[in-house]
Amino acid sequence: MKTMGNLARDERLVTQANIHLARLIPHVVGMCFLIGFITIWKPLIDMFTSELVLTNKRIYGKRGLINTKTMDTPLNKVNNISVSSGLGGKIFGYGTIHITSSSGEYTWSGIKSPNVFRDSVMTEIEKFDEARIKKQATELAGAMKS
Are 4 and 21 in contact (CB under 8 A)? Predict the structure, then answer.
């Protein structure tokens, strides 16, 4: 995955999700039967073109080579973030992250350590809300002084 290059003022990168190499295992095994040479392209393209980044202000994600889907959501607009994984994901430590925001639902499959990413998002949402409330209280106090 590439690193997000366009950070706003006072914005810092918190964490970045990566696609797990174990997602390629069924395709590599399938290469023994020649079918893997055909099926391995989609997960390889996903691996090199997917991006899911958490900053202290937003979640940014991009997926796809030709048909690209992009997500750029402020943390206060994230409604839900959940993780699902099958047996292979539990064994090898990868899963699918589902993010629901005010602008839609987005899914990233084969993410390495998805629970760590989800927990980081939840922590940053709490910090973001606390900072927003503190700023509003300061502005209100300043307005009441005037």
Answer: no
